[in-house]
Fold these 3 entries.
Entry 1:
Amino acid sequence: MDKLRTTLKQLVRDWSEEGRAEREACYEPMKDALAKHFSNVPAEERFCPSQSIPPPLTYPANVYRNKLRVLVPGTGLGRLAYDVARM
């Protein structure tokens, strides 16, 4: 019965409107830290249309946010991982 109660609480917190405040309190600092940490990495690969080579980079070559992988341990019902993937 305890496992069921815990799962239902996680479901409400992670996926319902009623859980939004708790979710934002818990997850927003982590998402903000990720965004800040990777702020110098472009969101996606962009090439200059008039050239066949990419523009000069200020970050390691071939590193783009849409190619990064983030480990989310203890992910529960997956809301934080879902939100991070959408960033």
Entry 2:
Amino acid sequence: MSTYLYELPTTGSVSFGDFCVDGTASNAYASHIAEATQARANLRGVLKVTKRTDTDGKDYLRLIKVLDDYLPYLHGIMACVVSGDIRLKSEPKFSWRTTLSAHLFHTSPRIALASLHADLASSLLTYAFALSNFARVTVASLGSYEHDRAISEIERKAKDEKLNFAVTLLCRASGIFTHMSEKVLMDWDKAGEGASGRPPDLSKEVNAALAKMALADAQTLAIRKFLSKSAYDSVVSPGPPLPKSHPSIPLIFKFHLECVSLYSSARALAMTPSSARPSSPSSNPDSNAEVCVELRRYLADASAFHTALAHKWLGVDAGESAVHEKGGEAVAWLLWAKKELEDMKEGGLGISVGRDREKRGRKGRVADELESVGVFLKHYKKINDSLTFQPVPKQQDLQARIPTGILAVHAKPYTPPSPAFGPGSIEYARLQTEALALEEDDSSGDEAVASIASPRTYAGAGSYF
């Protein structure tokens, strides 16, 4: 299954000079304020171009670089406001389009958000979206390389590395979403502005959900890489017997089970804001909106798909076991997986998400897995009917045997960049170090003058007998 495609927001123009006043005697930050305005204008321009560009032509890497340039300036202004070096003569307002809210006409309304915290949160959200979409584009460029008979071992390993790069991007995105939920939005609350006027995009619950979803997407790709070599070796004869290159089966179903847990938790969190949001009136009409149905459906479909795959590999594990008593259990697991995949295929789960290409991709993936399950089921059922003769347990009995999942990857914690200027910046630290050095030199000079003026330092100095 392909990872989720985020619709990127756009933002209105802002001049920091309209509300930022340099409070230093030498106007030390006037040029930096102008540079911050230019960096944000660059961000706005790239977002507008990205919005108008077709999906295949969107340059997510350029957007990531522009955000890397802007965020240090924004942190610099926020640090100077806290220290008092920059004064706000009016409340800053930033307009952003919301892209995760559910709307009747599927539009992305522009909303005005007050405070610098709002722009930081919206910029970081866009950053995480861009990383996720960049990972998606990277994976799409690989194709089904592990099933290509003509690919060489060197080429396959090179594509494995690209797949691993996409995993890293999603782990970074998960770290940013977590930072949003646990730090940025909390700081926004502490600044005196509650959650009543914010869209779901900027709620702590939704960002916690997106962190779990990004991590689950990363784990999905990690599973694919884990199976890459064995998938290539099984192209000619899929199903049992498994190739020697096949990795640990218990690890596979535990990885899938962890994906189920992450996607299910993410969906529960994503549906929280509509009931947890305060009922106080707000000037923002989007503040009481729900998360868009596409995101909720994606999470439900992904959870169902990984559940079926976990059951498939639990069946394969039982079938490949040397214990004859597990012959019936293998058949039971695979019958369960087959039913779940058939329900997905007939019900069209995941088919309505995205464009035609993604629809065909999801349909094909479910169909491929259904065919794979059929091959394993036919093999293990034949063995059980002719050799092991074990009873096929009921689904309720299998439910109690499902283990807990494990993580194959971990989110990469987000570290905010150093401010481009002001407290916390490299320049600020250098100036402080130079000032301290000058003070030490002045202090050493004063001590030398004092010693010359008062040379009597020995006992009895100045005493005459």
Entry 3:
Amino acid sequence: MSSASSSRGPSPARAPSIDDVALALVREAIEDPVASDLSPVGPAALYLLRSSLSYLTPTHIPALLALAHSRLQTYPFHAAPVAWRRLYTDTVLLWTALEFDAQRQGREVDWMEAVARLDKALVIAGAPGEDRREVVQALVADIQRVYLPPFPAPPTSEPPPTRSRRPFRSLSGSPAVPVLPAPPSISAFRALLSTSSPPFILRSYFAVHPTSTWRSPATLLSLAGGPGRIVPVEVGSSYTDDGWAQRMMLWEDFVEQITRRRAPKDEEDEGEAEEDVLYLAQHDLPSQFEKMAADVVPPDYVYCAPEENEAYRPPEAGLVINAWIGGKGAGSPAHTDPYYNFYAQIKSRKRIWLGPPSLSLPALSSSTTSHAELMSNTTSLSPFDGPEALPDDVRAHGFEAVLEEGDCVVFAPGWWHALRFEQDEDECDEAGWGASLSFWF
């Protein structure tokens, strides 16, 4: 290839496109690896990236991406060095720009795979660096619009009527979570924020916010904007089980599986293997799917967290929004988190048990869970297995509730909490999928 190709700029025959912007970002980063936080990856990795950029060839790119991925897998996500996250992201941007160029030259490109790589830059690496996240999103949108067939348009139908509220029956034997008679003022809400204060529920509060994209499987599918998007999905009923796993999954496959209608089981079905429980858990889906971000309106309450002090440190990134989407039985074992939580039930119903930080609950045992040492914030107790599953003092000091659509529960950092999507027996003809949003503040 001639040296002239190393100074590729926008073609005179066309206006600059989003892949030109991606290429320019990578070129700017490699010209000053210290300023761009890339220098810690070392001279060998920088040479491969610089060589791929200079000659505009993908020869070394798969190996470079595999190297960055292997380094990232050695760290928890929150502790992954920014240098390797930047290398992963910029390698994906360069690869995508080269594929746009290949398409213009008439070569075949696997655009579904290209979208998956871009999503991994968002999910695995977090797309750090100036303008990276916006460019990744723009590349995905461009590929979906030009090269991939659109999803069928969601039907224009009225949202289904709100299901009736069921009488509450505690499975743990703990009393019901207190319910506020009306949404409090901001000052009153702030006064309720104490680690010693009990959790409380706001009935039907989130129902006033936009929830149209949760209306049906078709509208849920449309959040991705088009085909090819992938999301991290938990496989198994609980992350404490040895058979539990996490995998990247096509959004359309995930939605199809959790929303598939299932006939009631009878005796003839007893021998059939049950399908895996799938759960998209603790994932910032609104930042990945821009259409969803437009439909999620954080409540004003989440902006009045206590100021940072010796006893409490808010999330470093500010407000953290996570989506929780799954079928019947999907949920989380009893565990603690370090932040205030405003938890909103959006679709279907979800059972929750909460216990105060003062409880000393037994930790997971390595004899029952192979990765127990990684889950120091999780207990071996299972509140939903019945009153006998909890010691008397735990049962007496805990709280339980079933959140219906629109209900929100608020609790302080350090509170134990277990959650599970539910479906009553007389609703077995329904798809039974559910969705929740949590706001850490």
